[in-house]
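For the sake of transparency, this paper describes our internal protein records without simplification. Because each token names a local backbone shape, the row as a whole describes the fold. One such record is reproduced below, unchanged from the form in which we store it.
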Amino acid sequence: VITQVRPERPTRLSPTLHETLAVVAYHQPVTRADIEQMRGVSNNSQILRSLFDWNWIKESGFRELPGRPALLVTTPQFLNAFGLNSLGQLPPLHDAKEAFMALDANAPKS
């Protein structure tokens, strides 16, 4: 029961994972192509797979474009993992990567 309320999270997150998570959190809903464009590099499918596996992101509909790409958003488990009650508590966007690294360092560990 406790793992459902407070899922375990890795103790260290890579810079690539931080950047990807920041793009989703601050710009949601986003597509995989949006993430690539904002980061300026191709997505590592393992990073997105990890975020899905940890239930930190989910699909939330589809963009009305050819191919109907999935829209990605954060989940309540993402908020919980970083000790947030809402997206409004995210640090200012001036440097989202640094902000998430700070959140990661200060978040209570499971």
